[in-house]
Amino acid sequence: xxxxxxxxxxxxxxxxxxxxxxxxxxxxxxxxxxxxxxxxxxxxxxxxxxxxxxxxxxxxxxxxxxxxxxxxxxxxxxxxxxxxxxxxxxxxxxxxxxxxxxxxxxxxxxxxxxxxxxxxxxxxxxxxxxxxxxxxxxxxxxxxxxxxxxxxxxxxxxxxxxxxxxxxxxxxxxxxxxxxxxxxxxxxxxxxxxxxxxxxxxxxxxxxxxxxxxxxxxxxxxxxxxxxxxxxxxxxxxxxxxxxxxxxxxxxxxxxxxxxxxxxxxxxxxxxxxxxxxxxxxxxxxxxxxxxxxxxxxxxxxxxxxxxxxxxxxxxxxxxxxxxxxxxxxxxxxxxxxxxxxxxxxxxxxxxxxxxxxxxxxxxxxxxxxxxxxxxxxxxxxxxxxxxxxxxxxxxxxxxxxxxxxxxxxxxxxxxxxxxxxxxxxxxxxxxxxxxxxxxxxxxxxxxxxxxxxxxxxxxxxxxxxxxxxxxxxxxxxxxxxxxxxxxxxxxxxxxxxxxxxxxxxxxxxxxxxxxxxxxxxxxxxxxxxxxxxxxxxxxxxxxxxxxxxxxxx
Length: 554
Fold this sequence. Notes:
Blueprint: H1 3-27, H2 31-34, E1 39-44, E2 50-53, H3 60-72, E3 85-88, H4 91-94, E4 100-109, E5 112-122, E6 151-155, E7 158-159, H5 161-169, H6 174-202, H7 204-228, E8 232-240, E9 251-259, E10 264-267, H8 283-297, E11 312-315, H9 333-352, E12 367-374, E13 379-386, H10 415-421, E14 424-431, E15 447-453, E16 458-463, E17 484-488, E18 494-496, E19 500-505, E20 510-514, H11 529-537, H12 543-550
Helix pairs in contact: 1-6, 1-7, 3-8, 5-6, 6-7, 8-9
C-alpha cells in the first residue's frame, strides 16, 4: 500500500475511535464519564489486536486490547452474529478493576466478520462492600463488586433484559449505571457504522489491507526509535507505602530495562509478591504502563497500534504485584501501583536518556471515593474522584501543576456538579503553595481541596500514596513535599489519615486534601531569577522558601 493511502486510512481509523469517544461522553449518564471522561474507545482486528485507540486514558492502552483478546478466548467466535454485543469486567481475563466494564461488538460486512469495535468505561458503582465499589481494605476480588465473565448483553440486536436486571439489582446507582451501559453500546454502534461506511467507500479488501500494513508501519517506526536508545542495562527501584490492610512496610517495585537494537526487554523480576490489599495489578495493567512510558520517551506520534509494541519483551513474574492471580483484590492497582510503575520505568530510562525524562510526578491518582444515602432525595449516591497533583520538572521546562498525571488523563469533577450530585460543599479548591519539588526546572504544584459533608454516615475511601516520601527529583533536583489527608470533625477534633484509609463523616465534618507536587529537575540554585520572582508574585512560594530552596533573596 502506498504511503499516502496508508496515512489517509490511519487517520480514518483514529477518527472513528475519537468519534466513538465523543458519542460515549455525550450520551453517558454518570459524572464519571460525561464530566471526568474516564473511558476509552478502540478498533480491533479479528484476533483482538489494536488497530486504533483514541488518546483517552493511558492505563486503558494495554488493558482494553488485552480485555478483548482475553474475552475472545472464552467465547465461540464462530457463533457471533450481527447485532451481538459482549460485556465483561473480569481483571483476570483482561482488565483493571471491576468498575471498568468492557463492551465490544463484532463488525460484519457483506456477511463476513471483519473487525471488532469496543470501549471501556469506569462505572460509578458495581456493587461490593462499599458505595463506589473501591475500598482500601478489600482483600479479595469479591469485596469489590459483581464480576461478569464475557457474556452477550445484546443478541442479534435484542438487549438481554434478564442480564440487565441482574446488573441493576447488584449496583447502588441503577439509573446512572444502566444509562452508561447503553451509552457504551451506542458508542460501539457509531464505530461499527463508520467502519462499514469506510468499507463501502474504499472496499473491504483495501480496508483490511490497510489494517495489516498499519501494524507493520507502526512496528517499523518503533523499532527505529528503540534502536536509537543507548545500549545497556538500566535498573531502578521504588516503593509503595504498604497495602493498607496487612502491612505498612514498603512494597518493592523493581525493573531492569535492556536496550540495544530494535528490541527492548523490560523485566520486573525482584518486585514483591502480590499483596492482601487492593494494590495488585494484573499483567495488562503493567503492559499499559510500559506502552505509555516507551511512547513518551521515544516518539509519542507513533500511533497506539499492535505493531507499536510488538518488539517489547515484558517479564512479569506470576503471583507478583505486577501479575497478580485470582482472587487478588485489584481495586487500587491502576490508581496507585500503576503510577509507581511509571516512576520506576522513568527512573530507569533517565539513566539512558535523562534529557527526555521528567522527575517523579505526584505518584498517585489520589483516589477519593465518597458514597452514602441521601435522606433528602431518598436515594444512594456514590462518586469517585482522582485529585490531581504536579508533574515533575524536565530538562527544558517546569512540571505542569494541578493535573491528573501519567496513567490517568481524566478531568476533575466541576465544583458545581460535585455539590449537585452529593450532599457536600467544596470550601476550598486550588493549587497548593510550596508543594513543588525545587529545581532548575521545578515540579508542578499539587492541589488543595477541602470538602464539608452535609449529611450523616457518609463513607469515604482514600486510595493514595506518597504520604511518607515525596516524589523524587532528577539531576540534582529536590523531591516535592509529600501528600496529606486531614480530618477536622464538627467538634474541632483534628487528625491525619494514612495514604490508604476508610473513614465515615457526619454533618459539618471536613476532609482536607493536599496532594503532592512533582519533583524538581536540575540544581535549584540554577533556576532563573525571573521564574522565581513570578512564583513569588503569584503567591505559589513565599520569600523564606525562595531563599532556603533556591538561594534567592531580594
